[in-house]
């Protein structure tokens, strides 16, 4: 499994941007005995359609096949898809889009006895985020240091 996906990212991002789309995430994983290169793309304002995904999949596949040296010498399956409604929050622009939205945050270590929180993102800066969470019927503001955040994604509020 490649440790550094940066050359792949740098090669395929212009292809994706050239179709007015956004590269949301990129991962290389092994499931059972098969390797997968998963690329998540989106298009604003209304999301990406299946025709664009199919076209990008072909173009990205061609770009990957032409790279020398081959960054993925072992056989793998290329999957290109939408990140869905619960898309990850990774880049700074994702965090900005998430302001006021309902999000899911997973932490490296417990904070106030919990490692997972869901709530509305009220504010953020370089050091921390402010989340409004609901505990039973009470609303509470929680400040979470960004260095403690293991993962974050948009969430659906029920």
Structure notes:
It is found in: Cytoplasm. Required for maturation of 30S ribosomal subunits. InterPro entries: Ribosome_maturation_RimP (IPR003728), RimP_C (IPR028998), RimP_C_sf (IPR036847), RimP_N (IPR028989), RimP_N_sf (IPR035956). The protein is α+β, with helices and mostly antiparallel strands. The protein folds into two domains: 6-81, 2-Layer Sandwich (GMP Synthetase, Chain A, domain 3), CATH 3.30.300; 92-154, Ribosome maturation factor RimP, C-terminal domain (SH3 type barrels), CATH 2.30.30.180. 23% of the residues lie in helices and 42% in strands. It has helices at 6-17, 50-66, 92-98; strands spanning 22-31, 34-42, 77-81, 102-111, 114-124, 128-135, 138-145, 149-154. The strands form two sheets. A five-stranded antiparallel beta sheet has the order 7-6-5-4-8. The model has no long low-confidence stretch (mean pLDDT 93).
CATH level 3 topology of the largest domain: GMP Synthetase, Chain A, domain 3
Strand content: 35-45%
Strand order in the largest sheet: 7-6-5-4-8
CATH architecture of the largest domain, please?
A: 2-Layer Sandwich
Please give the alpha-carbon distance between the first and last residues: 38 Å
Subcellular location: Cytoplasm
Keywords: Cytoplasm, Ribosome biogenesis
Pfam families: DUF150_C, RimP_N
Main location: cytoplasm
Compact summary:
The protein has 158 residues and is of the alpha+beta class. The protein has 3 helices and 8 strands. The protein has helices spanning 6-17, 50-66, 92-98; strands at residues 22-31, 34-42, 77-81, 102-111, 114-124, 128-135, 138-145, 149-154.
């Amino acid at each position: 499994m490649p440790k550094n996906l940066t050359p792949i990212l740098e090669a395929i991002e212009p292809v994706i941007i050239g179709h007015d789309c956004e590269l949301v995430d990129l991962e290389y994983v092994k499931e059972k005995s098969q390797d997968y290169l998963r690329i998540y793309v989106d298009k604003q304002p209304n999301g990406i359609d299946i025709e664009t995904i199919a076209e990008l999949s072909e173009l990205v596949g061609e770009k990957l096949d032409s790279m020398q040296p081959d960054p993925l010498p072992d056989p793998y399956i290329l999957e290109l898809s939408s990140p869905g409604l619960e898309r990850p929050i990774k880049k700074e622009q994702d965090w900005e889009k998430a302001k006021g939205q309902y999000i899911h945050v997973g932490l490296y270590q417990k904070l106030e006895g919990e490692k997972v929180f869901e709530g509305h993102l009220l504010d953020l800066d370089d050091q921390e985020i402010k989340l409004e969470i609901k505990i039973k019927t009470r609303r509470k503001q929680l400040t979470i240091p960004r260095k403690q955040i293991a993962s974050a994604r948009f969430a659906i509020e029920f």
